[in-house]
Every structure is written in structure tokens, then in C-alpha cells.
Automatic annotation (TrEMBL):
Domain of life: Bacteria
Pfam families: UDPG_MGDP_dh, UDPG_MGDP_dh_C, UDPG_MGDP_dh_N
The keyword rRNA-binding is assigned to this record: no
This protein's name: UDP-glucose 6-dehydrogenase
Gene Ontology biological-process entries: polysaccharide biosynthetic process; UDP-glucuronate biosynthetic process
GO molecular function, one term: NAD binding
Amino acid sequence: MKLSVIGTGYVGLVSGVCFAELGNEVTCVDISREKINLLNDGIVPIYEPGLKELIDRNKELNRLTFTTDLNEAVKQTDVVIIAVGTPSMPNGEANLSYIQKAARQIGEAINGYKVIVTKSTVPVGTNEKVGSIISQYSTYSFDIASVPEFLREGSAVIDTLNPDRIIIGTESERAAAVLWDLHSPLTDQIIITDIRSSEMIKYASNAFLATKISFINEIANICEKVGANVEKVALGMGMDHRIGSAFLKAGIGYGGSCFPKDTQALIQIAGQMDYDFKLLKSVVDVNNDQRFNVIRKLKEILGDLEGCTIGIWGLAFKPETDDVRDAPAFEIISAILELGANVKAYDPIAADNFRNRLDDPRIQYCSSSMEAAHDADALCILTEWEEFKSTPLPDIQTWLKSPNLIDGRNIFQEEELNGTPFVYYSVGRPSMSQGTKAQSPIIA
Ligand code: UDX
């Protein structure tokens, strides 16, 4: 099949490359000449394991090309996939201007029957608007479909090639057949729905996952008060197949390009229909507060932070990505600076992206984990990179000025800490805290 993919962000680039890997002829389009030049020169603008190898192979096989010429790309393809950004506006609503622009340009370009697929996460009803914009500019027949993307950053290639399910939202049997053929090599879990349900599935899925995270984070906060261990609680809960064990890792809250944006957008979508989505609002509030537990624990250990040096390990919103969008590290570091301390920060790959958004003379960006911990009054772990997990605690102890460790991702285990001098705070595991005494639960 011949496909064009409009937008070479995470979703567009990875989807385009994976469709080429399946044997389709794919043209990836972006308005950024710089991005397209990089991709044509074999440089991948995002960090994503396995992506470069697939790009190189499929370029060589002439199944994958990159261009800024949307018009030509659309003309030569049967399926056009829209994967442009839908960033949040200040009120949380999704900004659809890129989608609308793409729809207009597609309308101007089409020269015969096409299936127009939206992969970007868009509010319910957007695909229909895309359809009406295209028909304003074109007299050729086309069908629209919503095929939401569920890939995770850091495992985007694996996720795209091994999806749990494919949702095809379309009212057209012809489009459904084309898209079934396109996706059937990936999975037999394909569901055809109406367009609006498909658009909703994406928001509902992300909102539910975000809810699981905020739920377990609140359970962790309660565990700290009653002397229970959230990891054991999550293990016990997750064994119930109705609950499932995924997304029950307590920490400093979710970040990234999807959950914060999509939860806000769904609250807005509901609000516009006069529905107050109270549960999701609380999920967002809990998430926004969870990161400040790191600050509360720092204060508990150090008292006044004025003049202290705090080491930070991890700036990306999660491991295996250089993406810092909505990373909890921003607010944590800003709060530390506001309290008068200096920061020494390290991330294996996300430091440059982070510095581009938060450049402050009081933050020293370090080139190794050792440098960031060196002579610090406390070390905070904000991303669970493997590199940090495999660092021996005695090494950290020798680097730090005082052995104060706030593990925001629970990367260390009890056995490793036993007998060490660390003042150690993690999330929802008070028995491991060597700084405070866990309160005993009241037994009647
Ligand atoms: C997410 C969805 O998983 C994906 O389906 C969707 O298409 C885009 O949004 P992504 O943002 O790449 O993907 O990351 P994910 O691995 O889902 O993690 C999101 C955030 O939740 C991270 O900040 C992570 O640290 C946090 N998280 C995740 C937890 O705090 N606990 C968990 O148990 C799982």
C-alpha cells in the first residue's frame, strides 16, 4: 500500500517507519525543512530505541522517503495519515490548528479516492470536521477514519509493531476494509467502531491509566502514614485480573506528552457538554501535588534548604527517552531553587532538552551521575534509569557530603539499604525510611 504520513513527531515518524517495515511504501511529510533534512541525512531527531535501524533499512529498500512537499506526497498515496501535534491551549483544550491546516492542504492535494486517517489524539467530533474541511477544498471522493495511537515513548517501535489492539473508527466499509488490510499484519485484535467512539477510546484509555497512577500514589501516601508497603499492596492488588498489575508503580506522578495533555483535554471536552468530570479533575490534582512530596521529604531531612546543594538524578519524564515535556523534574527543581538551594543535575540523555527549557545559573548540568552527587547535601532520584539502579549504594555514599537519599521512583530495595548509613526516603515504603519512624497502624 502507498501511504503518506503528515507530521514526523513521535507518533507520525514511528508509525510511518513501522508501516514501511511491514512492506508498505511510505512518505513522511513535515513542514520543518530542518527535520526533513536531518532524516534524509540519516539523523533521527528523537531518541527512540530501534528506530534508526528501521529508518536506515527501509530507506535503503526505497520504502521510506521524507519530504516537505505535502501536496505531492498526498497525490501519490492511497492512505493519508494525519499525525500532527495537538498541543494544549492555556485552558487545557486541544489546539486543533495544525489538524485543520493539514486537512485543508490534503483537500487541495487529493486527486482521486483516498482514505484519510487521523492518528493524532483529537476531541470527539474532530474527524468529522476534518472531513468537512477536506470536502470544502476537494471534489474527489474520500473517507475519513480515526485510528488512535497507543504507543509509549521509549518502547514506541515495539509497541507499534506489537499493539494490544487496533481501533478503526469509520463509517465507511470501503475505508474499514483498506485499514483492516493495512493493520492485520500487526494483530488480530482489531475493532471497528464509529468515529466518535474511536476518538473517545483514546482519551478514556489515557485518563484511566492516569487514574491508576494517581490512585496508587495516594495509596502510597497513606501507606507512609499507616506503615504499609505500597509495592506489596500493588502486588496484591495487581494479581486480581480485574485490576491488573500494570500502572501501579507509585512515584512522583506522571508526566510526558500525553497524560497531562489528554486528561486536561477530556476535562474540557466534558465541561463543554456541561459535564463536570470530578474524578479526572482529582486525578490531575493528585498528580500535580505528588511531585512536591520530594520537597516535603527534603525539608524533613535538611530543615532549611537555604545554601544547600541538591543532586538530581533524572530529568526525563521517564527512562529511555530524552523527552522532558511535563517532566515532574521542572517543578521539583524550581521549588528547590526557590528555597535557596543550588542544584547539580544529571540525566543520561535528556539534559540538553531540559536545559533549553530551564537554564538557570543555580543549576549545574553535570556530565555524570557521580558529578551530580558529588558533595551534595542530598540526592533526589526523579527518573528510574537503569544506570541509576545499577549504581552501588556505597559509591553514592562516598560521593555525597551527607548520605541523604530521596528515591522518587523506588529504585533501591531493602536488602541493599540494610546496614548502610543512608537517610533514605522512598515512596510508600515507610519501613525502609531510615529518617522517620513509621507510625504504627491502629489495631483494634
Ligand atoms: C502514554 C500511554 O502509555 C500511551 O498509550 C499513550 O499513547 C501516550 O501516553 P507515554 O507518555 O510514552 O505513554 O509513557 P508511559 O510509559 O505510559 O508513562 C507515562 C507516565 O506515567 C510517566 O511519567 C511514568 O513515569 C508514569 N508512570 C507510569 C507511573 O508513575 N507509574 C506507572 O505505574 C506507570
